Amino acid sequence: MRRRTLAELYSDVERILHDHRVPGLSLGVLSDGERVVLPFGVANAETGLPVTAETLFQIGSISKILTATAAMPMIEQEAVHLDRPIREALPAFRVADADATERITLRHLLTHTGGFDGNIYIDVGPGDDALERDVALLADSAQRAEPGTLWHYANGGFSVAGRLLELHHGLVFEEAMRRALLAPLGMACTCFDAQEAILHPVAAGHLVCDQGWKVTRPWAMPRQAGPAGGIAATAGDLLTFAAAQMQHEERLRAMAEPLVRADPNRMWGLGWSVRHMGSIPTCGHNGLTYGFTSQLTLIPELNAAVAVLVNRDEGVGAVHDIESLVLREVFGLEWWEPAEIALRNGDLSRFAGTYREGDAVYQVIASNDRLRVERPQAPSFDLVPVEGGGFRAAGSEFDRKYGDILPGPDGQPRLLRFIGVLAERE
Amino acid sequence: MTDLTMLDGTIREEMARWSVPGLTIGVLHAGATEIAAYGVANIDTGFAARPETLFQIGSISKIFTTTLAMTLVDDGVLDLDRPVIDYLPELPLVDETARRTITLRHLFSHMSGFYGDRFDDRGRGDDAIALAVAAFGDLPQQTAPGELWTYCNAGFDLAGRIMELKTGTGFEALMRERVFERLGLDRATYFAEEALLTHVAVGHVKDDEGDGNRVARPWPIPRRSNPAGGISANVGELLRFSAMHMGDGEVDDVRVLSAQSAQTMRSKQVDADPFREWGVGWSRRVLDGVTLVEHNGATNGFTARLTTVPERGFAIAILTNHASGGAAHTAISKVALERYLGIPDEPAPVVAVETDRLVARNGTYRQKLADLTLTANEGGYDVSVVNHNPFSHETSDGMPFRLAPVNADATIFVAQGGPSDGAYADFILNGDGGVRFLRMGGRLAFPG
Fold first, then answer.
1. What is the pLDDT of residues B363-406, one digit of tens each?
2. Residue B299 C-alpha from the chain's centroid
3. Which residue, of A105, B114, B266, B424, has the greatest Cβ tally within 10 A?
4. Is A374 on the interface with B (CB under 8 A)?
5. Interval A113-157: pLDDT, tens
6. B200 contacts in chain A (CB < 8 Å)
7. Would you tell me how many other CB atoms lie within 10 Å of the CB of residue A36?
8. CA geometry: angle at B326 spanning B320 and B328, to 5°?
9. How many beta-carbon pairs below 8 A join chains A and B?
């Protein structure tokens, strides 16, 4: 049900880019079997070279979807089992908790329910053993909950998936991905490092500061980050990927079935983040790297997809606004988001307290109809209660993000959870 | 009035003749710098080459490596004439005499005698050069140290490793600290992660399937070869570097080298191959009594040249993004030397030799980068070439050319036609007068 064409939205998109101070955008839309990629702005503020339809952007955690999809044949052929302990397929797998080590499954890893802190980054170098060494870092991952009981975003689970691909194919991760996914689908531009990217038009990442844009240096994609966040792609390649997944209905259904509630606004499947537009389900993922922000969303019922790739750091607002514009104007769809609900101060005061994670401290105070969160050396933000029992943040780097304050075994509020945050109340 | 526009016609002609997609040229003359850019940086993107576009400069990087070493000589950290095993006792070289006697001076003047076209990939880690040097035990010792000039890339990798050991700093970081930053060369880099953040060219080779070119893959040379050839730079930065050398180590009140070190680098150390001499790092030619101090470069799909004429305060840098661009920059440089300085750059005259005298040396001469098959004909040799690209590991037929004798003994030849037009080759003989090697492009090709 197309309302306006993509080309008619040009000046609206430009306005959003201007308002959000985005140097460049590659916007891809798949609809009625037609693929359109519209480039905007500059790939690099220093050179002034324009974004083209072939420009590569770092896609960050959208990489997780590519990795998970590449792993599906192994699962479908039962070379590895979703619900068996991952140690059976990868004996080297270990987290700090001995019991969890024996119980964590591939399904836990792909749905971020392993319950461990999986975001350790220690540089393991560019060697062919990078992924093997990255997986070994998980041995120090603290266990925050029983496996399968808590959604807690963990990059490390996808390093494991990437390592499984290496062992299964007998190839380094990048070659395994080319064989399993990129070559068969014809994703010709997608690549994993600067040495390959330099042969293509490529966007630089940018920070926004008072003086304007600052190119992020160097253009880094650590090798160990490949499966969880280290891929560069064009909007066109992502649409190619999306089209292929929507062709493969049975697999997509299996991967995008919502399995666990991640926050008030989304469920999670095998890799895919699952949300709704009205009654229409979508699956997608975002990507955030140093200097880049991106989003890929599929609407299987409409055989449609939208890819938004921008080259500014912390560009979630811009990406959200551009995507929403396209979904509304081209498809007549609006994101479903949970509505604000009114809670009385009495209901909110139970959440108040000091929540800690390592050195990070979150002072939560009940304040009229919302919670206020103060941090010693970072901006404060509000938590607005929404239907479904969680919150939407307002202000700071958490602005518009959804999170929860989850109860402990005694039913009292215990865990403040956002992506990247899992703080416990004292 | 001499200026770069004089060369415009020649540049366009040569680019068309050799199918060069993009080229930048810089001239330093009478205290002024002129730079021009032609064509495209990448035939797939179509982005224009700009004056500031980075190209891979290949072995021109050796002058930077040598310069870096000389800054350490100036600081008393290195000595050109100490045996290198003093700096690296575990140096694995197969010939014990060579192992114990080779010096940095040998390495920088290509007189060490060990085989040097080793480009095996040792990964992208900080230990790449160390890993490469640890494998030098299987490099053949082709001649004794000091015996015969033979181009040796691996010698520079070894020098790079020695510098890492003596300073405790990685090679590229050391170069950045002591040379790039000191000179204000903000864009010169060894790394794709940095190069792709600015205007940068990709290399091109002939497309075997069609008439045109294709982008050369992979883009980078292995990290272990950075000391021998790993820099990407633009002509402006090469001219600033040249000005420093011609200023005896100093430019704009910034000193990088002592005057003595700058002079040592360009002073004649040895007779190299025919009509060339070598300094410490720098290549030398004397044309019409004037000394050219220069170096060429070639990587996968890039060819480059830097020529300085210190006694005239003149320098020219030409960077191209095609494997056959060497013929183009050679021709452009000739015109430039003639027009700017009045120096003719003509090859040595051909000498008449009876074909019968040449037949005995017919045959195929092989070295790692190329096989040359010589067939005596009309007082010279017809030569067919099979090239072996050490970076892409592809084999391709090169353009055939002629070798015409320039001495009565028919041991020294000039190439006619093909990308090496004007270059020299010579037969290095055994005691019994048989051919030990055919030396061309500094490489020793074995008969049979």
1. 999 999 999 999 999 999 999 999 999 999 999 999 999 999 99
2. 9
3. B114
4. no
5. 999 999 989 999 999 999 999 999 999 999 999 999 999 999 999
6. 198
7. 17
8. 75
9. 62
